[in-house]
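Note to self: user wants both folds in one dump. Writing first protein now.
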Amino acid sequence: MIEQELTWVTRALKGDEEAFSHLVETYQSPVYNLCYRMLGDAVDAEDAAQETFLRAYKNIKRYDSQRSFSTWLLSIAAHYCIDQIRRRKYTTLSYDETPQLDPPDLHPGPEGSLVISEDQAHVKALLARLNPQDRAAIIMRYWYEFSYEEIGEALSMTVSAVKSRLHRARRELALAYDECYETPALAERRRYESPAF
C-alpha cells in the first residue's frame, strides 16, 4: 500500500487528478473520523473532510515527500477543525444532547447498542472539555496511534511540548471523569481524605 500511495502522491504532485482521487478514496474514512471526533457532529465533519481534501489538493505542491502523507493530510484536518472550534467558541454539550462519538456498530444488539452509545457519549463529553490543541493531540495519539514526533509535526510543536500537552490533557480528562462519573468508592475515599472541621 505504501508503495502504491507513493506512486499516487508522485502523480498527484504532477497534476494527475485521478491519482489524487485515489488518495481521497484511501483517506476519506480516517479524515472524516478525525473531523468527527474533533467536531462531534456528522454534518460538520463531512464539511471539514471535504475542506481538508480541497486544501490538500490546492497545496499538494507544498507537500514534503520526506513526511508521511497521512500525517500531512491529517494535520490539515486537525488544524481546520481547531480553527472551526475556535471560530464557533465551542461549548460543552449537556449529557442529554451529546451525540455518539463513533459511527455505531451495525450489529451490536439492543443492550450492546445502549452501552456503546453511552460510552461514546461519555467520551465525547469529556473530549469537549479539552481545548482544541489538546483534543487534537489526544485523538492523534490514542485513535490514530501517531508517535510524539508525528503529533509534533502535525500540530507544529516540539516533542516535549507534545508530551507535556498529552500529560496535561490526560490529567484533565481523569479529573473531569471523576467529577462526572464519581463512583461510591471514590466519593467515600474523598470524604476520608478531605480535612475535617
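First done. Writing the second protein, which came from a different request thread.
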Amino acid sequence: MREHCSQPSVILGSASPRRRELLQLLGIDFDTRVAGIDEREDGDSSPLELVCRLSRDKGMAVSAQVESRIVISSDTIVVLDGQVLGKPADAEDARTMLRALRDRDHQVISAFTIIDQISGAELTDYVDTQVTMRNYTEEEIGAYIETGDPMDKAGAYAIQHPGFHPVSWIHGCYASVMGFPLCHLFRHLSHHNRIEMRHPVAPCEEFTGYHCTFYQQALSGAGGE
C-alpha cells in the first residue's frame, strides 16, 4: 500500500542508525522506511555496480510505499583486493576480515540514490574513499569483537568506534566511510527547492571529530564524484 503525506517531504530508506544521525546533521525533517531488499551479491557485478544497484533497489522499494516524497537511500561496501567484504556472519568471520584488513589499504564505496516522486527525477551517485588500517593487535581485535560492534558493519568495522580506532589514514570522505557522504548528498539535494538544509561541513566535523580537507572537492563535484 502506498502512503500519501505532504510532510515531511523526505523519506530515508534505511534502518541504519548511523545514516539517520548523519542525515540529521543537515537539519532535514524526514521519516524513515526500511527497504527490506535482498542484499546478496549476484556474482556478476563489479563492486561499483553492486553498491549502486543496491542503493537504487532500496530507493525503488521504499518509493513503492509512499507518494509525493523525495526518497533517499544508500549502500556501503568495503573492497579489499577487488573482493567485497560484507557484514560478518559470526565472530570468526569478523576476525578473519579484520586480520585481512590490518595494516593494509582498501576501498570503501558508498552509493546513494535520490528519487523525487514529484518531478520524476532520479539520481544515483557514489563516493570511493581510500582507507588505510592501522596495525592493531590480536588482543585489540578480540576486544573489539566482544563489543558486538563489528557484526552489522561491512568489513566488520566502524571507522568512528571510540575504543578500537581501526583506521590510520583516509583519502576522501570520512562520513562516506561511516555510510553517508554528506557533502555529495548536500550538493545534489540543493537542486530540490522543497528541502531546507543546513550546510554540512561544520556539523559533520563536530559530529565526527575529523577535520575534513576534502569538502571543497565534494561540494564542487570536482574529480567526477
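Dump finished. Worth passing along: The two ends are 36 Å apart (CA to CA).
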